[in-house]
Amino acid sequence: MFYVYVLESESTHSWYIGYTQDLNERLQRHNTHQVTSTAHKGPWRHIYYEGYLDRRDAIGREKFLKSGAGWRFLKKQMKYWLEDRDVDAIEKMIAFDDDE
Questions:
Q1: What does the DSSP 8-state code read for residue 48?
Q2: pLDDT classification of 94: cutoffs 50, 70, 90
Q3: What phi, psi does 9 have (nearest 5°)?
Q4: Structural contact between residues 33 and 39, judged by C-beta atoms closer than 8 angstroms
Q5: How, if at all, do strands 95-96 and 2-9 pair?
């Protein structure tokens, strides 16, 4: 399986969107400062993920979620979870990276 995931920084509440074959291992890499783009904002936690059988589908979905339409989808998909959060502040802090 290939997973597209969204992480949230527990310290800054910024988001990171990526893809991986191993969610737990990838989260560990983010939290042990092995991913350059997230090393200074941790600790991180999973807040959303989707699974795909084909790597190309996961990459396509990751690219979509990093777009404006993708952000709108995530806001709609996680409506209730986001109710108590400052969505505008989160939107300004989303970190996108293609280092996998």
A1: E
A2: low
A3: -75, 130
A4: yes
A5: unpaired
